[in-house]
Queue: 3 jobs
Job 1
Amino acid sequence: MREFVFTIEYERGADQLMDLFTENPNLQAETMAIHVTQRSIWRLERVTGPTTALEAFDDHIENTTVCSDIIGMCDAPVVESDHEVLSRTPNRRIVYSVRTEGNGVHSIPFVAAKHIGDGLLMQSKRRANKYQWSLLVDDDDTVRDIYEELTNGLRDGLSLSIQRLSEPRCWIKSNFRTDSLPAEQKAALEAAVAYGYYETPRRNSLKEIASAMDIPNSTLQYRLNRAEAWLVKQFISNTLTTDTEKRTKQVEFKV
């Protein structure tokens, strides 16, 4: 199996919801789970960003009449639609949705399900003007068929590209692999959390935590600095484009 990434880029004005993402660079969405058949699609999506942007996002999903936003790229009418915000905070939404598309050009999940059938695995991410769909596919011919059908039905204001990644990433939840974090740094990070170092106000200082761990203050400081640097790198590598670009090979098909 190889991982292929289908990227849809939206011109401003082509889709109201994607305009919202373009206008709010800190607004992003990624699937936590997605299940697709040739009739319906179910998905669980985590959406994060500024409070005002998320409030505008709420308005969009409440008034959706075409499948151009939650599902993907098509503008065919939605036959059946249901969604529920399972979790809501000022800077995050967890949204469950189920959709059945009507006649017309279908979205990437539906086209992929048509050509791949049972066993389809996919994920999606949205940020700025890009909507990326990652698929695990076992042959190039299937990818070509999906690409050709999507390209032939691509509506104005959208462009489509495909990248083949050098190796599939682990799709089980997070890309945060704690096995690469040294044990003493992990212990320092866990202690800092347990003793309330990252709370506001702090419950304990580094000196107090170091004393409780029976290690020098400078040692704890060093281990925390290294662990925090590791966390930042893991976070950045888990964003929309950074990790993908490292493992990408452009695929060109002629339609």
Job 2
Amino acid sequence: MGSCCWSCPDDDGPVANNQGNYQAVTMTRQQLEASVEVTTPQPMVKSGKIYVKDNLLFVSDVNKGFHIYAYNDAGTPNEIAFLKVPGATDLAVRGTTLYINQATDLVTMVYANNTVTVVKRNANVFPQKQAPDWSWASLQENEIIIDWIPL
């Protein structure tokens, strides 16, 4: 059964049908839930919000994840890892626990020693991402929009 969604940009997955100037980039629920991982530092594509916690600096790369820097010296932050979270745009930190919006889900994870453990996932807390021009996509029941890309 298809549904009509209003949805926003990334290039990590298949592209759904488009009826405007943007195309939806989608993942299945299973792909989304398996997509969180810590990798080596990556080039910044589209920087977003910044969060500092103790000696760590997190910089959002919109709809891709978070660049993690050692922030012992404010004058020389050193990128140590990239936390890949397709569809993510924001996070909150309490202790070593990260709370991240990943597309439609609220994901709780623990980050320590360059590893991440997903503790809990609350599915469908947030609506599907909206395209900047209100383009829409026909989605299958288990498809989630992680980004919108311009045509």
Job 3
Amino acid sequence: MLYYICKRLLLMIPTLIGVMLITFVVTQFVPGGPVEKLIAQMEGYNVTGGEVAAASSLYRGDAGINAERIESLKKLYGFDKPPVERFLIMMRNYLVFDFGESYYYKRGVAELVISRLPVSMSLGLWSFFIVYGVCIPLGIKKAVNDGSRFDVITSSAILVGYAIPGFVLGIALIVLFGGGSFWNIFPLRGLVSDDWSSMSIGMKILDYLWHMVLPITAGAVGSLAVMTMLTKNSFLEEIRKQYVLTARAKGLSENQVLYKHVFRNAIIPIITGFPGYFIASFFTGSLLIETIFSLDGMGLLAYQSVLNRDYPVVLGTLYFFTLIGLVSRLLSDLSYVVVDPRISFEDIDD
């Protein structure tokens, strides 16, 4: 086991370097970088994002900015060094989690990410608990009542929810319950109200939960179908095995058969994804959900960083989230051994 873990940890190093190298190379060929954008702004062109690339031809001969000034701007952003040297410096800093400063926000990347995490954590964690809390019992009940009216109705409902994109559902919820054309029940902006700091503890909790209802509903509904059907099919596969017939023949009740024998085997493919999903829920963001409900989370930050060519944020967050993803994948693999003692990595180690 220890050998397997060490081997996986060592494999993370070239994987992480490869991801960062590919992304770094791509950023070198994307037109309209931070230097070009700053020059465009100095020249009086009100351009953002991809418009910089279209306007970049203005800087090559008749830009009005002398060569010395351009070189000083390149030095300011670190583009005066060769790409290989810049990549090595970047990776050296990333090893100690020094992600630099954002070009656009003029703040440290780590500080910027931490300021956006509460939104993404709220959306991710609540969606995580709702998906697992609803889908596992619902999937078990559907497996026990396979083919019944309950099974057909619930399957139809969750598949309809799965077919509706999250942003479409979000807009529909706003129209219905956010003061659009029908009822003005739920708030539409932010995690909390403007006067949240003056509320009592109980009112703060209620206000926070009230703000979370619509975005969490819009984000979680689409995930219910996958987890529910996975749970149902996993339990159905176990229920049809020979050991279940043997347990019933011994006179065990259906609940004893289901929860003492079937449950611990059927839950394995579901619970093994738990570590990765749980860790990812802290850091992932949804651009469309955050945009619709005016939430400044990681999804919106990532989109704005790419649009503004904010390379320190793009590369710094990519490094951190890739590292988190690799670790969560390792934890998911190790969870197989925890939930199923029959699985061992000894053969792999050999």
